[in-house]
Amino acid sequence: MRTTAGPVGSRPVGERVHLTRAGPPGTLPGMATQTIGAVSFRQVGPCLAAEVDGLDLTRPLSPDEVAAVHAGMDRYAVLVFHDQPLTDEQQLAFTRSLGAIEHAIGTGLREQYRLPTTFADVSNLDVNNQVFARDSRTRLFSLGNRLWHSDSSFKVVPAKYSLLHARVIPSKGGNTEFADMRAGYDALDQETKDRVADLICEHSQLYSRSLLGFTDFTDEERERFKPVRQVLVRTHPGHRRKSLYLSSHARGIVGWPVPEARAFLRDLNEIATQREFVYSHRWRVGDLVMWDNRQTMHRARPFPEHEPRDVRRTTLMGDGPTTAQVAAA
Ligand code: OGA
Ligand code: MN
Question: Which of 288, 313, 314, 315 to probe ligand 1 with, by most ligand atoms within 8 A of CB?
Answer without folding.
Answer: 313
